[in-house]
């Protein structure tokens, strides 16, 4: 056996397993996306089993493109993913820098900060939408109610009452509504994933060279300049990692959307796939292929953008 | 101008006082070297002058003005670190220009000053490279460049050569020496290497456990060490210290004789011993002599072409006018 064959042979199980792992699902999705395949159709029972004789060409793709929710789902996917990315990275950097200094109770604070990450997504969604964001029974409702009560009292107070009577009564926001359900998802996922960003940034901050900081202090750099010219470039790579990983995860958000509003006013591509997959597997598969393309486009641009702005 | 005065400066970490009250004056234009074994507080002292470390008590004056509470950037001092501390994400040009940029200087002036500094340090070909693409010596020069552009009142060097290999170190030593001759700016240089101290300094400050053992020019320290510690620390190879009856003959508790001030003979002399390892350096040979009954080992420095073998009998005679005498407290008599 020649020198090259043995290593290849030894690699092959892993490579073959990976290929099976990746290619079979992708291949099946592609296949289903080009045929008529529905789970239940009384008039055309032959469509309920996948077969090449039900070939539909790009019909499923056309159907998906023309469906009223498709464009909205793509826009909404991007809105949710980009908002969460911006919020988690900004909050993550700020919190990581804040708790990087030593202070009493540091260990406990760090554990508490990380803990949201260990909550299951569905549990996270149920807790937020019912206990915190609910306009009547949640923290939001209670807070808005108490502020309104306080304003009422102040309006009746002597001297300053006229000033507070100019203030409007506060209205609680219903986060299950069509217009706001996407924001509810953004808020709860940001809460859950900021700890992930903090964790990654914190480990990176600890490897920052202290002599560079001291040199910068002697060079007259302010705290802000040290952050801008030393810490932020140092964090470029971890930021890229956090953005990439989160982009992959948040393009496939499902549980939160289901629990907050069952897709009312707030669909992303996976949710649309789920809706199609109730019956129309062909359309669901075509949407899946669109999702793969979208994910690749997003990944490509994100990497470019981060590479250019921060690595310099 | 760069006259730096330390007035009863102390430093404690918690309950441990690493620097007991210390007074020192470094005159304008001097090249002062703080030298001592590791942990003697020399780096702490430098960092206190730079303002990176707070003083526990006492005052630092720069050009006659109390600088103890002045923030590091406004003391007009520039520091070169052991690890170079270059900013890894910036090019050499931006690294050198950084202090000027922080001082909000006009871009044209920054460019011009950076070019001037780069020219004098032979860095013109590397201005657009990142620190990671430079060799150790080039990085060191960038760090020095970053200090020069600020036109500081004094330069502070914190063991700047210890990360370089031996050959480069000799070269950089000369470059820093040349730089001092050219700029005539005060320089304070911290090292544990007495060779660096001897070759570069106008004024050596020997420190041990935070206490100044002696301050003086290299030759003063060599010829008139104030105590046994300085005698043993300055000079290479180390001075031989002999106690006991031989010392009593000279009415001292300890006598010291430098390896180069000992005459060697194979036939007769004052002290008889057995040759151990002989280190042939070419120009010189260091012979380690055992079994003299005076100390564990004596070192002598002789002409390079001597031929001695391990185990040979050898006779040593100290040159009478070069014997250093110390009392029971280790102080020079």
From TrEMBL, chain A:
It is found in: Cell membrane. Residues 74-302 form the ABC transmembrane type-1 domain. One of its GO terms (cellular component) is plasma membrane. Keywords: Cell membrane, Membrane, Transmembrane, Transmembrane helix, Transport. Gene3D superfamilies: MetI-like. InterPro entries: ABC_transporter_permease, MetI-like, MetI-like_sf. Its main location: membrane. This is Trehalose transport system permease protein SugA. It comes from Falsiruegeria mediterranea M17.
From TrEMBL, chain B:
It is an enzyme of class 3 (hydrolase). GO terms for molecular function: ABC-type maltose transporter activity; ATP binding; ATP hydrolysis activity. Residues 4-234 form the ABC transporter domain. PANTHER family: MALTODEXTRIN IMPORT ATP-BINDING PROTEIN MSMX, MALTOSE_MALTODEXTRIN IMPORT ATP-BINDING PROTEIN MALK. It comes from Falsiruegeria mediterranea M17. One of its GO terms (cellular component) is maltose transport complex. SUPFAM superfamilies: MOP-like, P-loop containing nucleoside triphosphate hydrolases. The gene is malK_3. CDD domains: ABC_MalK_N. This is Maltose/maltodextrin import ATP-binding protein MalK. The keyword Lipid metabolism does not apply. It holds the Pfam family ABC_tran. InterPro entries: AAA+_ATPase, ABC_transporter-like_ATP-bd, ABC_transporter-like_CS, ABC_transpr_MalK-like, ABC_transpr_MalK/UgpC-like, Mo/tungstate-bd_C_term_dom, NA-bd_OB-fold, P-loop_NTPase.
């Amino acid at each position: 056996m020649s020198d090259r064959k043995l290593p290849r042979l030894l690699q092959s199980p892993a490579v073959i397993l990976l290929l099976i792992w990746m290619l079979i699902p992708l291949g099946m999705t592609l296949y289903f996306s080009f045929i008529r395949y529905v789970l239940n159709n009384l008039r055309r029972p032959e469509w309920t089993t996948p077969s090449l004789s039900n070939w539909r060409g790009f019909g499923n793709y056309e159907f998906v493109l023309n469906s009223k929710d498709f464009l909205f789902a793509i826009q909404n996917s991007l809105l949710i993913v980009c908002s969460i990315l911006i919020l988690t990275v900004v909050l993550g950097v700020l919190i990581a820098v804040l708790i990087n200094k030593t202070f009493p109770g540091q260990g406990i604070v760090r554990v508490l900060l990380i803990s949201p990450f260990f909550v299951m997504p569905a549990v996270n969604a149920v807790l937020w939408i019912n206990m915190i964001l609910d306009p009547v029974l949640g923290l939001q409702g209670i807070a808005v109610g108490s502020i309104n009560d306080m304003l009422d009292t102040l309006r009746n107070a002597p001297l300053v009452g006229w000033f507070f009577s100019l203030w409007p009564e506060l209205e609680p926001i219903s986060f299950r509504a069509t217009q706001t359900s996407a924001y509810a998802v953004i808020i709860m996922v940001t809460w859950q994933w900021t700890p992930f960003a903090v964790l990654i940034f914190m480990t990176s901050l600890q490897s920052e060279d202290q002599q560079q900081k001291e040199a910068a202090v002697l060079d007259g750099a302010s705290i802000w300049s040290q952050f801008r010219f030393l810490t932020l470039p140092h964090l470029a790579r971890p930021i890229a990692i956090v953005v990439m990983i989160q982009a992959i995860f948040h393009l496939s958000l499902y549980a939160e959307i289901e629990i907050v509003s069952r897709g009312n006013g707030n669909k992303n591509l996976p949710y649309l796939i789920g809706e199609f997959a109730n019956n129309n597997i062909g359309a669901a598969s075509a949407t899946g292929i669109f999702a793969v393309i979208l994910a690749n486009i997003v990944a490509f641009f994100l990497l470019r953008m981060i590479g250019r702005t921060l690595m310099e | 101008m760069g006259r730096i005065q330390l007035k009863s400066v102390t430093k404690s970490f918690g309950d441990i006082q690493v620097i007991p009250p210390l007074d020192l004056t470094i005159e304008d234009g001097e090249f002062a070297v703080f030298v001592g074994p590791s942990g003697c507080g020399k780096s702490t002292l430098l960092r206190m002058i730079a303002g990176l470390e707070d003083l526990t008590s006492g005052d630092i004056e720069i050009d006659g003005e109390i600088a103890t509470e002045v923030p590091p950037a406004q003391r007009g001092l520039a520091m070169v670190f052991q690890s170079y501390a270059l900013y890894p994400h910036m090019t050499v040009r931006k690294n050198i220009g950084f202090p000027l940029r922080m001082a909000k200087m006009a871009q044209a002036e920054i460019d011009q000053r950076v070019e001037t500094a780069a020219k004098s340090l032979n860095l013109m070909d590397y201005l657009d490279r990142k620190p990671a693409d430079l060799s150790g010596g080039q990085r060191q020069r960038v760090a020095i460049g970053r200090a020069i552009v600020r036109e500081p009142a004094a330069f502070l060097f914190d063991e700047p050569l210890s990360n370089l290999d031996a050959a480069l170190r000799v070269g950089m030593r000369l470059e820093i020496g040349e730089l001092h001759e050219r700029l005539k700016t005060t320089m304070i240089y911290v090292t544990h290497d007495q060779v660096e101290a001897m070759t570069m300094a106008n004024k050596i400050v020997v420190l041990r456990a935070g206490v100044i053992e002696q301050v003086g020019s290299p030759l003063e320290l060599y010829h008139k060490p104030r105590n046994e510690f300085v005698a043993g620390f300055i000079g290479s190879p180390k001075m031989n210290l002999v106690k006991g009856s031989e010392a009593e003959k000279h009415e001292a508790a300890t006598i010291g004789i430098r390896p180069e001030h000992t005459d060697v003979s194979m036939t007769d002399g004052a002290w008889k011993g057995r040759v151990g390892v002989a280190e042939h350096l070419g120009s010189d040979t260091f012979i380690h002599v055992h079994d003299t009954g005076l100390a564990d080992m004596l070192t002598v420095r002789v002409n390079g072409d001597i031929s001695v073998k391990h185990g040979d009998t050898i006779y040593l005679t100290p040159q009478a006018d070069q014997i250093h005498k110390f009392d029971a407290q280790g102080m020079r008599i």
